[in-house]
User: Fold this.
Amino acid sequence: MHTLELKKDKIYNQLKQAIISAKIPAGKKLPRETDFAKSLNVGRITLRSSLDRLEHEGYIKRVHGKGTFVSPENNKFVRAPAIMVIRGNGGGFEAPHNYIVPEVIRLAESKNCKTLSITDSALLMFSSADIKNYVKENNVIGIIASMNGFNGDEPVIKKLRNAGVPVVIAHCALKDTEVTGFPGIAINEQEGWEAAIAYLTECGHKNISMLGYGGHKFRGFNKNECLELLKKYNANPVESLLKVVEFDKEYIRNTVKEMFDCDEKPTAILCYSDFSAIYVYEALKEMNLRIPEDVAVMGTCGYPDAKLLTPPLSTVDYEYSKFADMAVEMLQEPGKWFADDKAKLRKKSFKIRKRKSTNIKLIK
Assistant:
């Protein structure tokens, strides 16, 4: 995978420099893709990805039935290409956009592409005409929106549709692509939650507590579905150990203490997020309970600094940095993700990070 990406970047940069330096002069017709790929010693897919990017940035123009031409001098973009990044306003330090957006900026700039970052609420202050003009004047080749959970009638969707460039939703909900008409990247959170339950039962746990969150509940599951999952993996389906909490230190602290006042006490706690797990650590410490000797703790989402906890936190890692990689790549391959006027959903995998907070060797 990395080799292919390096080839795409190499061919793109090689052709771009040849066009800028006039080694390939303005107006020149490029060879047929099959012949061109052969002369460059690359595959057609690699070449096509590079040409897609050059076309999107205005360096070449494809004319149906005639071929591919280097753009005339007065039609080429003079400024460096840019990506507009729209981030949500909601949430505190636990919001995913806090970790995805900086990675988008880092990656884009490593590819000599400027980034223009703005919040969704700030975007709404401008008219569609203003946004479209801004996109044109700043050579914006695409927009990455780090938001999710759309219902379809949000004003920001209309603004983005009228921008005149491709839009990718980074870290979207599974239905967001269908609702908005924009391609996106999504984790199957239910699969991740079930994988965490399976892992904890492999570690020998029978009494698994689950801390859900607000309207999202247990990463897409309700209580009854969670009880069925526990049965599926031969754990005890104890309803009193399933709690929906708010992201609040005191709320989580009191909830954890309540669970240990019950007859059926948990041997493991699966948290909606790594951030709620941090508060669980504090509550258990106050109760003089050791992790994982007395109770194991596992998070969900993959907060990068969770490994700094004592002990380091096991988690279902969504790998936020890779959302950025995938989103920028999608803007560079518009023909693949924006074809046939139908947006495509790109599924992203997750990883179970097994750390000392659930270490099987320490479980009594």
